[in-house]
Amino acid sequence: MSPQGEKHFSQRIGLLRAMVLGANDGIISTACLILGVAAADATGHAILVAGTAGLVAGAASMAIGEYVSVSSQRDSEQADIQKETWELENTPDRELAELTGIYQAKGLSHKLAREVAEELTAHDALSTHLAEELGISRHNLARPLQAAVSSATAFSIGAGIPLLASSLANDASRIWVTIVTVFAALLGLGVGSARFGGAHPARPVLRILLGGGAAMAFTMAIGSLFGATVG
User: Fold this and answer.
1) Helix, strand or coil for residue 16?
2) How far apart are CA 195 and CA 208, in angstroms?
3) Which of 25, 93, 128, 229 lies 20 to 30 angstroms, CA to CA, from 213?
C-alpha cells in the first residue's frame, strides 16, 4: 500500500508473477507429460507415476530457480545499500547535489529542488537516495525464501489439477477429461491473474489458452508417434 493508503496494482507484480508462473507451469507441464504418456498407450499406473514425478521435480525446480534468482537480486540490492551508505558518510555534499539534480530533472526549480533534497536528507537520507537513485526500498527487499515457497506451492497446486483429473478418469476418457479440465483451469487462472493485476481478462486468457493448447497438442503428437513406433 502506498503512503497515502491507496492500493496500486504495480505493488503486487512480484507476487503475481511468481504465483501465475508457478501455477501456469504446473498445469501445462504436468498436463503435457500426462497427455504425452497417455497418447503413447501407457497404463493408468504409468501415467500416474509420470505425473507425480513431474509434479515433484517441477516444484523442486521452481523453488530452486526462484531462490537462486531472487537471492541474486537481494545480493545486488544489499550491495547498492552498502555503496550508498558509504557515499552518504564520505561524500555527503556530492550526494545532496545529486539528489537536487534528480528533483530538478522532475521539473522543480533549483531552489525548491535543493530545499526538498535537504529536507528529505535530514529526515532519512539513505532511504531517500535509495528510492530516488536506484528505486530500492530497504524495508521491502527481495525475499528469496518467500519467492521459492510461493513458486513451489503454486506449481504443485497447478500440477495437481491435471494429475487429479487423469487419475479419476477411466482409460477411455482420460485424455479428454484431462484436456477439458486443463482448459478450465487455464481459463480460471487467466481471469484470476488479470483481475488481480487490474487488467482486462480477454488478452491474458487468450494467451494462456492458446499457449496451453499448443503445448498439449505438440506433446500428444509426440506421444502418439512414439506409441505407434513402439507398437
Assistant:
1) helix
2) 15
3) 229
- Least Cα distance to 182 among 36, 38, 29, 57 occurs for 29
SS3 116: helix
**Helix, strand or coil, per DSSP, at residue 84:** helix
Q: Given this model, what pLDDT does residue 229 score?
A: 47
How do residues 130-158 score in pLDDT, each as one tens digit? Answer: 888 888 877 777 788 888 898 899 999 99
- Spatial neighbors of 8 by CB under 8 A, at least 6 apart, are 2
User: What are 71's three cell numbers?
Assistant: 537471492
- Which residues in the chain show pLDDT less than 50? 1-5, 8-11, 228-231
For residue 72 the three cell numbers come to 541474486
Rounded to 10 degrees, the C-alpha dihedral 126/127/133/139 comes to 130
Measured CA to CA, the distance from residue 155 to residue 28 in angstroms comes to: 10
204 Cβ contact partners less than 8 Å away, ≥ 6 residues apart: 190, 191, 193, 194
Residue with cell 503413447: 40
Cβ neighbours of residue 138 closer than 8 Å, sequence gap 6 or more = 81, 126, 127, 130
* Cell output for 167: 487419475
Q: Please give the Cα distance from 89 to 83 (Å, whole number).
A: 10
